[in-house]
Specification:
By secondary structure, the chain is an alpha+beta fold. The chain contains 4 helices and 10 strands, in the order H-E-E-E-E-H-H-E-E-E-E-E-H-E. 24% of the residues lie in helices and 28% in strands. Helix 1 runs antiparallel to helix 3.
């Protein structure tokens, strides 16, 4: 489970998530501490034994399920992988991959296009799997 996904699920329960040191802290109404989960160690979490009295059995059960799912996720799988744009050093154009037209596959465009038809951001694994020579191309990290 990715951190972004975990936070959204916790917030959907009506709780807040705050990063403190190397933990994500989950607070209930009135900032009451309910639990925390480590960002540094896999399987590391703590819960407030009185949470069931504070938020009820159903929310406590859901919270525990989310905590265990996140805490058991390997640390390197909790964050979305970094992505890069691929740029031609000669033309300055960006690599795009056709999502809907496999015969076109790759093309170069002057601007970065983000759409349902074209892919322009690539993970390290995708770049390494390119079947064409790409060592000379420029990689620009995508910043969100």
């Amino acid at each position: 489970m990715e951190t972004k996904e975990f936070k959204q699920a916790i917030e959907a329960l009506g709780f807040t998530v705050v990063k403190e040191d190397s933990n994500l802290v989950i607070n209930g109404e009135g900032s009451i501490w309910l639990a925390d989960v480590s960002l540094k160690y896999k399987y590391a979490l703590r819960t407030y034994f009185g949470a069931i009295d504070e938020v009820g059995e159903e929310k406590t059960r859901k919270l525990f399920e989310l905590l265990t799912a996140y805490a058991s996720t390997p640390l390197d799988e909790r964050e979305e992988p970094k992505k890069w744009y691929i740029k031609c050093p000669i033309t300055g154009q960006y690599l795009h991959e056709s999502i809907y037209y496999p015969s076109t596959k790759f093309t170069w465009r002057e601007t970065i296009t983000v759409s349902f038809e074209w892919k322009s951001q690539y993970t390290r694994a995708e770049i390494d799997a390119f079947e064409f020579e790409h060592a000379h191309l420029i990689e620009e990290e995508v910043t969100r």
